[in-house]
Design goal:
single chain, transmembrane, Putative membrane protein, transmembrane helix, mainly alpha, 7 helices
């Protein structure tokens, strides 16, 4: 199996810049035949997360609760986002008949928009680093 076949399997989980594919190809071709075969057999055993799944479920649907951050391993930011969401719900429910500042809701909304882009990018970088570590 050549590297182009391997790249077709993992390409959707890697950073979208062309540089990562070139780096992986160069590293793969510098390996001996035995190490190449060993790498290919181990590649299916490492758990590469799907950026599409993390985007739709973790960031888009449940992103306001920080689920996307939890899915990529950013537990601190995940807990901060979850805490902000709970605080916002509490403030909304406790001030049902009164006007309250919408600043927390605005922060959550802006952070959600930013995370739609950042979470997937960070996940692809983590997948790339896992593959690089497997080659060494």
């Amino acid at each position: 199996m050549d590297f182009n076949s391997v790249l077709l399997i993992i390409q959707d989980k890697l950073p979208k810049d062309g540089a990562s594919s070139v780096i992986l190809k160069d590293k793969f071709e510098s390996l001996s035949q035995d190490k190449q075969k060993d790498f290919i057999s181990k590649l299916s055993q490492i758990k590469l997360k799907s950026p599409a799944f993390v985007f739709w479920v973790g960031s888009f649907l449940l992103g306001n609760l920080g689920v996307g951050r939890f899915m990529i391993g950013d537990k601190i930011l995940g807990f901060i986002r979850l805490g902000l969401a709970i605080l916002n719900i509490y403030i909304e429910l406790s001030s049902y008949n009164t006007e309250y500042p919408k600043s927390i809701a605005l922060i959550i909304w802006i952070w959600w928009i930013v995370d739609l882009f950042l979470v997937g990018k960070k996940l692809r970088k983590q997948n790339f680093e896992k593959i690089i570590n497997l080659m060494q």
